UniProtKB/TrEMBL annotation:
Annotated Pfam families: GIY-YIG (PF01541), SLFN-g3_helicase (PF09848)
Origin species: Microbacterium esteraromaticum
UniProt-recorded name of the protein: GIY-YIG domain-containing protein
Lineage: Bacteria, Bacillati, Actinomycetota, Actinomycetes, Micrococcales
Occurrences of domain GIY-YIG (ranges): 28-106
Length: 575
């Protein structure tokens, strides 16, 4: 099913008028089109659309839309087998691929890309790859589909076809926020809760782009009438959002850098909108909306990573609240600096004692539920084995013996030889890319001071920890290194090779999973600080270590390979 053709013409009124007379399909047939150009632009720009009257739609684009100034050429994809559903689907695929490729600035809004089912969808989607290759031959794409789909730009893109629970959450959030903005004195906190892989980061990025699109909406813009979000594109809402000041706070440095790159490539979003908690605390600005990704990784008043940060924490507390009281957290800074907050939370991903305490997270969840501002994500987007796999992993780490769920084609394996697992990860990386080794923090980081030193030595295999903490997954040499929790939390891999160190083992006498404080080498991860000050027992440490492995074991989309150092734990998991 690949009998398509691509017709080309200049993005000019006279050319469109001439073209419109050449065929009935130019004025009365479902088509997909691409308009691109680079005149008077910092980066080449591109718009993807679908219509049943291509000539009329081109005239609309030419009728003074400032956003389309500088566009030069049109390509129209025509196939006699296409219908409206196929065109919506192809349009969605092309927008996502173009944005993930990063070669063009994408001028489309994200009022809701189609992921609807229709007759012969899988057959049509195979033919989309032929359309992609035809456009790639003409220079519109610089990379292959697998290369594009392995990029952070693709994975973290605001141009997503949302799951049902994501779409419902965003619709309710926008509805509530617009209602609140009509009352300037109203303050609110909304909470989105979800397990790993349910798309919490996507919710934040998508929502910021959607609000910016509504704010900048022009009456001649083409918003799909049956889009879930079409009702928000009104002059009244545009006025409500006109001066909206929003920011996205991401506690982890690595993920923050990746999201900044996405914002850099996305019109209406700006890398300066992505902030650290300290930048919010030190800011003089009053934000209308602050979204917080990985809220569970915000800090309480505890020993920070450096003396400078300890000093800053106290100064910010004094500036905002008049005193450096231990009860004030980075979440309090965000609430003091914004009228509305959207908190994205998974309490089972807290990994250090200075992360927000379970009591604080529980309070936010309880208040949000009471105010009907609590949204739950359940659809698993990352791991192909689905939500059952995530719960299976977490139950095993709790020491339970859950039955192995049906995993379909998901590749879950336990290795007895680390060299074999390492080689398998290399082979998967050749096949599909984005395959990496990761491990719990059970080895000293010697190579940080001595680049020639090895950190991890097992079964004759010698390896080093990640050589960078910024975008490690995509850095040169990462395939031969081992990533820590701080480099992969919030990211997707195709395959994850997880080394479970001796920091988690089975006690021979009790027959239970326990933490080994001596083998856990993250000094900041076992300090007597924060809510655990003077009461940080081994059971508390086990919670953090379990959470770390829970994150590591849910990074792989296609498969997870596991090597366990402790013989007792290996026997327990293999059973």
């Amino acid at each position: 099913m690949s009998g398509f053709s691509i017709e080309r013409l200049p993005f000019e009124r006279e050319a469109v008028n001439t073209w419109s007379r050449n065929s009935g399909q130019h004025t009365d047939w479902p088509v997909v089109y691409v308009i691109d150009g680079e005149r008077a632009r910092r980066q080449p720009a591109l718009y993807v659309g679908e219509t049943v009257n291509a000539a009329s739609r081109m005239r609309q684009h030419l009728a003074g839309n400032k956003q389309h100034e500088g566009l030069e050429s049109i390509r129209v994809v025509i196939d006699e087998t296409y219908n409206k559903s196929v065109c919506l689907d192809l349009e969605s695929h092309l927008i996502r691929w173009f944005h993930g490729d990063g070669q063009y600035s994408i001028l489309n809004g994200n009022d809701g890309l189609s992921n609807a089912r229709y007759y012969d969808r899988e057959i049509y989607r195979e033919s989309f790859r032929d359309v992609f290759e035809a456009l790639r031959t003409e220079g519109l794409f610089s990379r292959s589909i697998p290369q594009i789909e392995n990029t952070d730009l693709f994975k973290l893109s605001p141009f997503k076809a949302l799951t049902d629970d994501q779409a419902i959450a965003i619709e309710d959030i926008v509805e509530g926020l617009l209602a609140d903005l009509q009352h300037p004195d109203t303050r609110s906190t909304l909470v989105v809760q979800g397990d790993p892989g349910t798309g919490k980061t996507i919710i934040a990025i998508f929502l910021m782009k959607l609000l910016a699109d509504i704010r900048d909406y022009s009456d001649i813009d083409d918003v799909e009438a049956d889009s879930m979000f079409a009702e928000f594109f009104t002059p009244e809402n545009r006025e409500l959002l006109r001066d909206l000041k929003m920011a996205l706070v991401i506690p982890q440095q690595s993920l923050r850098q990746s999201v900044k790159q996405v914002f850099k490539k996305t019109p209406k979003l700006d890398p300066k909108m992505v902030l650290t908690p300290f930048q919010v605390g030190e800011s003089d600005a009053e934000f209308d909306l602050i979204l917080v990704d990985e809220t569970h990784r915000l800090n309480q008043r505890a020993n920070q990573a450096s003396g400078v940060q300890n000093k800053k924490f106290g100064q910010i507390n004094e500036r905002l609240f008049g005193a450096d009281d231990q009860r004030y957290t980075q979440l309090d800074w965000i609430k003091a600096r914004s009228k509305h907050q959207l908190l994205l939370i998974d309490g089972a991903q807290s990994v250090r004692p200075h992360d927000l305490s379970p009591a604080v997270l529980e309070r936010e969840l309880r208040h949000a539920a009471t105010d009907h501002r609590h949204f739950r994500l359940t659809t698993q987007m990352r791991v192909q084995a689905g939500a059952d796999y995530v719960e299976y992993i977490r139950a095993m780490l709790r020491g339970e013996r859950p039955p192995r769920p049906a995993l379909g084609e998901y590749d879950l394996r336990l290795f007895d030889d680390l060299g074999e697992m390492r080689q398998a990860i290399r082979e998967r990386d050749v096949e599909v890319g984005l395959s990496r080794l990761v491990a719990g923090y059970a080895w000293d980081w010697k190579s940080r001071r001595d680049p020639q030193a090895f950190d991890i030595e097992i079964d004759g295999e010698r390896m080093r920890w990640n050589s960078t903490d910024k975008d490690w997954i995509n850095s040169p040499g990462s395939l031969e290194e081992v990533g820590s929790i701080h480099t992969v939390q919030g990211y997707d891999l195709n395959y994850a090779g997880v080394i479970i160190g001796s920091d988690m083992r089975v006690d021979a006498d009790l027959g239970e999973i326990v933490a080994s404080r001596d083998d856990y080498r993250d000094k900041k991860g076992k300090e007597n600080t924060g809510h655990l000050k003077d009461a940080f027992g081994d059971d508390d440490l086990l919670v953090f270590i379990r959470n770390i492995y829970g994150v590591l074991l849910t990074r792989g989309m296609l498969g997870t390979y596991v090597y366990v150092c402790d013989p007792g734990l290996r026997a327990l998991l293999s059973s």
